[in-house]
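[Discussion] Sanity-checking designs against the backbone

I'm trying to build intuition for which residues belong where. Below is a structure token string of 158 positions. I'd appreciate it if someone posts a full sequence so I can compare it with mine line by line.
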């Protein structure tokens, strides 16, 4: 997490404080071996890449893959959402990314479609993940989702 700590000018995770006093910041629970993040602060356009690098460094310490949900609160009232996945292997990250996509799609589609129609879409998306994974394996490069960079304006991240 050193790149993140350097960016927000803190020496350790224990020093990280959110601008909202009811948020704990970043804490490592040794007993559960979990990093809990609930932090809001002013960030610039390079923050997304820096956060991705910091979280990527955690991959070798992960026992399971997990999503890290990020929300950028813009000064004009807009919210921008992002997800960065961490995990012990590209396969585990792909599995969690796929599961997350399926859950999101099922939730959105269930408003207007029945189970049979939803399953058609889920099967198609599953095939797309399979093709992408096979293509990535043939090229010997991990498959990653590209996420747009954050605009220049400052915003809050939580």
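Best answer:
Here's mine. Compare freely.
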């Amino acid at each position: 997490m050193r790149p993140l700590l350097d960016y927000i000018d803190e020496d350790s995770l224990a020093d990280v404080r959110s601008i909202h006093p009811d948020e704990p910041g970043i804490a490592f629970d040794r007993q559960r071996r979990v990093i809990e993040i609930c932090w809001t602060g002013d960030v610039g356009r390079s923050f997304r890449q820096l956060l991705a690098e910091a979280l990527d460094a955690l991959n070798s310490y992960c026992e399971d893959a997990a999503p890290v949900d990020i929300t950028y609160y813009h000064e004009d009232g807009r919210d921008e959402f992002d997800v960065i996945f961490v995990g012990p292997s590209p396969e585990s990250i792909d599995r969690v990314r796929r599961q997350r996509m399926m859950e999101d799609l099922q939730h959105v589609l269930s408003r207007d479609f029945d189970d049979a129609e939803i399953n058609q879409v889920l099967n198609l998306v599953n095939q797309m993940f399979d093709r992408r994974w096979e293509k990535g394996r043939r090229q010997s490069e991990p498959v990653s989702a590209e996420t747009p960079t954050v605009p220049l304006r400052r915003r809050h991240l939580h």
